[in-house]
Amino acid sequence: MLSKARTIVFKVGTSTLTHETGKTNLKGMEELVLVLSELMNEGRQVVLVTSGAIGVGVGKLGLPARPKDTPGKQAAATVGQCELMFIYDKMFAQYGHKVGQLLITKEDVDDPKRKQNLVQTFERLFTYGAIPIVNENDAVAVDEIVYGDNDSLSAVVASLIHADALVILTETDGLYTANPLTDPAARRIAVVPEITDEIRAYATGAGTALGTGGMVTKLHAAQIATAAGVDTYIISGKAPRDIYRLMDGADLGTHFPAKERA
Questions:
Q1: DSSP single-letter state for residue 150
Q2: In 3-state terms, what secondary structure has residue 203?
Q3: Pairing mode of beta strands 165-170, 254-256
Q4: Is 120 exposed, middle or buried (0-12, 13-18, 19+ CB in 10 A)?
Q5: How far apart are CA 62 and CA 83, in angstroms?
Q6: Rounded distance, CA 16 to CA 55, Å?
Q7: 94-99 contacts: CB < 8 A, separation 24 or more?
Q8: Angle (CA) 226 229 230, round 5°
Q9: What is the per-residue pLDDT for 229?
Q10: Nearest to 227 by CA among 127, 178, 158, 133
Q11: What is the pLDDT of residues 128-178, one digit of tens each?
Q12: Which of 26, 92, 183, 224 is 20 to 30 A removed from 36 (C-alpha atoms)?
């Protein structure tokens, strides 16, 4: 089914964009940009929801760790967002593609007028042949207007633009019955027809030191997207070229089949 998808939202996490040192993972970004550019060349519409602004900002500023206070996170995000977009713009340009930046808050989606404007902006970017690169607006983040994680944001974006599929790139190759790093008996779950309490119980862990997500937030994203009729996949982001294999129907990660659209 994914091979027939015309509009696909990809979400990439901080763990894919940065090394454990906090420095930018340029090789990983280059491979991701190459793959997404090739999908664009095939005639597909691609949206990239990218985390990493705070993590990249931490590395750029030479901070010893991710700030714990809100002003510190916001300041790191402003520096990191500039760096991220500079790199994306330069890398996509090598393959002849243009990018456009959208910094979104929950308020932008909750307000009907702003939501309409947002959808129209996406549609016009597609018309212009540009790749929308989306991030939460961390620089103005307060509890009332943020999603709190880009997993949920990617699902909301996929729902807004009626995407055919959402692909979430993360540290592990899908959802497992236990932590595969510590439990040799852990089994990957290839397909999840319904997100039940049993499935939620498998999703443990709070993400990485530089990121905010975990499998819990990805399950929540899958629930949002599939309810809106968007097929959702969670796969490893360590080898972006695996996206080609996924598109060809390879058994990778975990697939959450879409519900029927109303």
A1: H
A2: coil
A3: unpaired
A4: exposed
A5: 14
A6: 11
A7: 94/33, 95/33, 95/34, 95/37, 95/41, 96/37, 97/37, 97/40, 97/129, 97/130, 97/131, 98/128, 98/129, 98/130, 98/131, 99/130, 99/131, 99/132, 99/133
A8: 65
A9: 96
A10: 158
A11: 999 999 998 877 766 544 566 889 999 999 999 999 999 999 988 899 988
A12: 224
Query: pLDDT confidence of 39, banded at 50, 70, 90?
Result: very high
User: Which residue is associated with the tokens 């055919």?
Assistant: 164
Q: Determine the Cα–Cα distance for residues 260 and 141; give it in Å rounded to an integer.
A: 34
In whole angstroms, give the CA distance from residue 218 to residue 220. Answer: 5
- 93-113 mean pLDDT: 94
Residue type, 235: I
Q: Tell me how far CA of residue 246 lies from CA of 118, 191, 221, in angstroms.
A: 29, 13, 19
Overall residue count recorded for the chain in this entry: 262
Tell the residue number behind the tokens 């713009």, with chain if given: 89
Is the Cβ–Cβ distance between 148 and 206 less than 8 Å?
no
> Residue 6 is which amino acid?
R
DSSP state of 135: E
Structure tokens at 164: 């055919």
